[in-house]
Write a structure and sequence with these properties.
By secondary structure, the chain is mainly β. The protein has strands at residues 12-23, 29-36, 52-60, 69-73, 77-81, 88-94, 98-102, 105-109, 115-119, 122-126, 132-135, 140-143, 150-154, 157-162, 165-170. Strand 5 and strand 6 form a beta hairpin.
Length: 173
């Protein structure tokens, strides 16, 4: 048995910082932004990204999945995007929240460590204490942090399983 670890494969190859100007010097809007690298590899972040964008393009390494990443710098957030594929497609980092786009789902991590996943009219929440809540168009389910209590509410009634037994009630008309 070998105790050596395999060298990790390269995913990213190089990065280039760019500026994208959406308006011409006369103030008219350009159909496509004029893009070029900033002097001294430094760029300020414009207050209005519709006027000027600061971004970097990170090129995928040969042999990787071939999806380059674009990193956009905004005053209130950093946005990473890449073409849809087998893994994540986007990442939005703000002062208090991280949102991830992966496989047609939005995953939000709140400042308290809570997690929310949205997909096809169903939202799943993992609370900071570990409780899990799942809501959908026909039912809401809750599991306690230790897994000892589980409940489900739907239009037909309510059912709960806990350490002291089972409760099931139909909805009263």
């Amino acid at each position: 048995m070998s105790l050596t670890t395999a060298k990790p494969s390269s995913v990213w190859n190089k990065v280039q910082l760019l500026l994208g100007f959406h308006r011409a010097p006369d103030g008219s809007r350009r159909a496509t932004p004029k893009v070029w690298p900033p002097k001294d590899s430094r760029a300020s972040i414009h207050a209005d990204p519709e006027e000027q964008e600061t971004f970097a393009v990170v090129e995928a390494a040969k042999g990787a999945d071939g999806r380059d990443v674009q990193v956009k710098f905004r005053r209130d957030m950093i946005v990473l995007t890449r073409e849809p594929g087998p893994a994540w497609e986007g990442l939005v980092i703000s002062d208090d929240t991280v949102r991830i786009r992966a496989r047609d789902r939005w995953i939000k991590i709140g400042p308290d460590g809570s997690v929310r996943v949205d997909h096809d009219q169903v939202a799943t929440f993992v609370e900071p204490d570990g409780a899990v809540i799942k809501t959908g168009p026909t039912a809401t389910s809750v599991m306690s942090p230790d897994g000892a209590e589980v409940s489900r509410r739907n239009p037909d009634g309510f059912c709960a399983i806990g350490p002291h037994g089972v409760v099931a009630r139909p909805t009263l008309s």
